[in-house]
Amino acid sequence: MSEEREERLSYDPFTTSDAFGPLGNFLLKVSRFFALTGGLIFVALVLMSLVSVVGRKLFSFAVPGDVEMLQMCSAFALSSFFAYCHLIHGDIKVDFFTHNMAPHRVAFLDAFGSLMVGLFAVLIAWRTGAGAMSLKEAGETSAILAWPVWIPQALMVPGFILMALAGFYMCGHMLRLAIWRTQ
After folding, report:
1. Contact of 125 with 160, CB cutoff 8 Å
2. 148: helix, strand or coil
3. With contact defined as beta carbons under 8 Å apart, do 18 and 10 qualify?
4. Which of 47, 62, 81, 111 has the fewest Cβ atoms surrounding its Cβ within 10 A?
């Protein structure tokens, strides 16, 4: 008697498991922490921009360097979302060609896509880190606040490394599901 096995995927933002196992659950928790931290940074940036705009219009006061802070902080805050998004299947997927395919074949394609995400994230982390070191050596600073420009760029690297780990983990996870579904 063959019992049909199907994995239930949860898309709840506070999910603790996607049948990942200990390593996947650890990646999910770390990714969620990164995403929440990035979200808090964006909230702080919105509040800072609000104070600057309202202050400029009503009190002739603006936050000095508000645009610089917005650019620098949003860059590394944004990089913190990618891993979590990939782990909860939040990526944009065009399933026009795959919606009639067998689930195990879709899982194989998802595994390949996750491998590509992992490889791309390694490339981006490497080049972002190299760029940050180059900016550090050059001593480049922002125009108004004179903040070192390399620091926000270097802060993007952990998010990209986490995205690479998430991509490689999901590749293995989806391959396991694809093989499991063919049996």
Report:
1. yes
2. strand
3. yes
4. 47
The residues with which 148 forms a beta bridge, in sequence order, are: 141
How far apart CA 31 and CA 151 sit, in angstroms, is 21
- Local structure of residue 18 (DSSP, 8 states): S
From residue 132, alpha-carbon distances to 56, 66, 157, 167 in Å are 33, 22, 9, 23
Taking the C-alpha atoms of residue 6 and residue 27, their distance in angstroms, rounded to an integer, is 23
User: What CA–CA distance (Å, rounded) separates 7 from 149?
Assistant: 45
Supply 108's token pair.
Answer: 């194989």
Angstrom CA distances, 176 to 2, 102, 104, stand at 19, 15, 10
pLDDT tens for each residue of 49-78: 999 999 999 998 888 999 999 999 999 999
Contact between residue 164 and residue 125 where contact means Cβ atoms under 8 Å apart: yes
Given a contact cutoff of 8 angstroms between Cβ atoms, the answer to whether 144 and 70 are in contact is no
Separation of alpha carbons 100 and 145, rounded Å? 55
Q: Are 122 and 164 in contact (CB under 8 A)?
A: yes
The amino acid sitting at 89 is H
Three-state DSSP class for residue 141? strand
81-116 per-position pLDDT tens digit: 999 999 998 888 777 888 888 888 888 999 999 999
* Amino acid occupying residue 171: C
